User: Which sequence fits this backbone?
């Protein structure tokens, strides 16, 4: 990721990032945080590569996971399979 600052007066610039972190904090992160940085790193990777991309339905993707939406896109677009 590349850090960016919102344009002055435009609250929508960081909306996807804010939504991701809200979801992480409310759906995954332990209520009382982590014991150490290594535990946090492992859990963040599990959330991003495991749950968020593989399982979690995203409303933007018609309630499909990003991996499933991408699979459908490639099957339809590149392979001509529905």
Assistant:
């Amino acid at each position: 990721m590349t850090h960016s600052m919102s344009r002055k007066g435009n609250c929508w610039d960081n909306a996807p990032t804010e939504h991701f972190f809200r979801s992480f904090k409310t759906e995954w992160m332990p209520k009382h945080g982590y014991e150490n940085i290594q535990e946090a790193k492992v859990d963040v990777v599990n959330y991003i590569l495991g749950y968020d991309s593989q399982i979690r339905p995203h409303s933007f993707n018609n309630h499909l996971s990003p991996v499933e939406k991408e699979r459908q896109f490639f099957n339809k677009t590149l392979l001509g399979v529905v």
